[in-house]
Amino acid sequence: MARTTGSDGEKTEAAVREAAVSLIARLGYEAMSMRQLAAEVGVQAAALYRYFPTKEDLLFTLMREHMEGLIEAWDAARPTVADPATRLAAYVENHIAFHIERRHSTHVSNMELRSLSHDRLTQVLRMRTAYEKELRAILRDGAEAGVFSVEDTGLTAMALIQMMTGVIVWFRPGERLSISEVTATYLSMTMRLVGAAHGATTTYGAVRAFERARTL
Amino acid sequence: MARTTGSDGEKTEAAVREAAVSLIARLGYEAMSMRQLAAEVGVQAAALYRYFPTKEDLLFTLMREHMEGLIEAWDAARPTVADPATRLAAYVENHIAFHIERRHSTHVSNMELRSLSHDRLTQVLRMRTAYEKELRAILRDGAEAGVFSVEDTGLTAMALIQMMTGVIVWFRPGERLSISEVTATYLSMTMRLVGAAHGATTTYGAVRAFERARTL
């Protein structure tokens, strides 16, 4: 979307996106009206259409930005080493951190796909596939190197992604467990699930400590 | 729901439920109207209200029956032995088989909770908790017996349930893998995830063969 509306326009657009994510998560996309959304943001309904000519343009923007954000976060978190266990651990950490931060946006992205037009659905699914392919590559490299024991990289990738994304369904900050405790447990479960050779996580820990020290 | 309407009434009610599940899965609960549903079933809208006085009564019935069905299926599948690995394997098999058979109903049950009234939401969540508690008990027994290695039974139960239910998102009968191949892979992943002692699945296989022979 061209940002020719200057700084106030950008602020309004951001407020629209934020309010839309939370309204859609609460009511569902089909049930939310542009009128309701305008009222929530405190603008006229006509003003919304300047940013999002149709309601579906808005939904598509939310979903595309969610996936772009996820892929960017992974590009930034991706370790520079080739060790599959280290890469897998980084993928798990990034995936959980990203989704816990964006609980509503994740709900919208997972639940409202049916309301996208065919072409836009294809675009969003293509981005998802690209992201999941990264995980499949890690699993395949680990299996080929003999450090993971995986029957089917496709199935294992889906199982891990659904297990990790599922965190947003029950996790609430400030309850029994912190994000880092949850992440640590999911990391152990993931490493066992892929049959990571004993010691793989120790190597991982050492490499992470090194990487962290390097970026300080 | 009292079934005083006789056999034709029961058939209509079943047709309404079936059409509702598929319409809600496709359009979403909020977007579906009782008028559309009546047209789909081929009855007058007024006739629907004989079975379901409100739209929310219908949604609640679908969700309650989904959970009752799941709990009944597990009661029937529950092994008579105490061995945690055998019980866990039976839980996984039953969970995957039940949800693959009821893909639309599972979507409705997972995605439309927000449209239930507080009391009914509480009832549905209570049934879910009872079902998940069965899994937590298996994990705890396994951990206490030293055959599973589990950091947190609550987290592990949620991770397993979300990983298994996620099958319905991507699995389509007649594609690359059969239900039994998918189930076998999920079983291996589950056993590794809970750190099942080597040989636990062999015991499981032997016990299952015994149980199957016994019920023939």
Structural write-up:
- The structure is a homodimer of 216-residue chains.
- By secondary structure, chain A is mainly α.
- The longest helix of chain A is centred in the middle third of the chain and has 27 residues, at 118-144.
- Chain A has eleven helices and no strands.
- Chain A has two domains: 1-53, Orthogonal Bundle (Arc Repressor Mutant, subunit A); 55-215, Orthogonal Bundle (Tetracycline Repressor, domain 2).
- The first copy, chain A, is elongated, with a radius of gyration of 20 Å.
- Chain A binds chain B through residues 26-31, 111, 114-115, 149, 151-152, 155-156, 158-163, 165-167, 169-170, 177, 182, 185-186, 188-189, 192-195, and chain B through 26-31, 111, 114-115, 149, 151-152, 155-156, 158-163, 165-167, 169-170, 177, 182, 185-186, 188-189, 192-195.
Count of DSSP strands of chain A: 0
Number of domains of chain A: 2
**Gap between N and C termini of chain A:** 35 Å
- Shape-level CATH architecture of the largest domain in chain A: Orthogonal Bundle
- The name of the CATH topology of the largest domain in chain A is Tetracycline Repressor, domain 2
Given helix and strand content, the structural type of chain A is mainly alpha
Q: The biggest beta sheet of chain A, please? A: none
Helicity of chain A, as a percent range: over 70%
Q: What is the oligomeric state here?
A: homodimer
Text of the CATH class of the largest domain in chain A: Mainly Alpha
Mean pLDDT of chain A: 89
Largest interface: A-B, 35 and 35 residues
| Envelope shape of chain A | elongated
Number of helices of chain A: 11
The secondary-structure element order of chain A is HHHHHHHHHHH
Low-confidence stretches of chain A: none
GO molecular function, one term (chains A, B): transcription cis-regulatory region binding
Organism (chains A, B): Mesorhizobium mediterraneum
Keywords (chains A, B): DNA-binding, Transcription, Transcription regulation
Pfam family, one (chains A, B): TetR_N
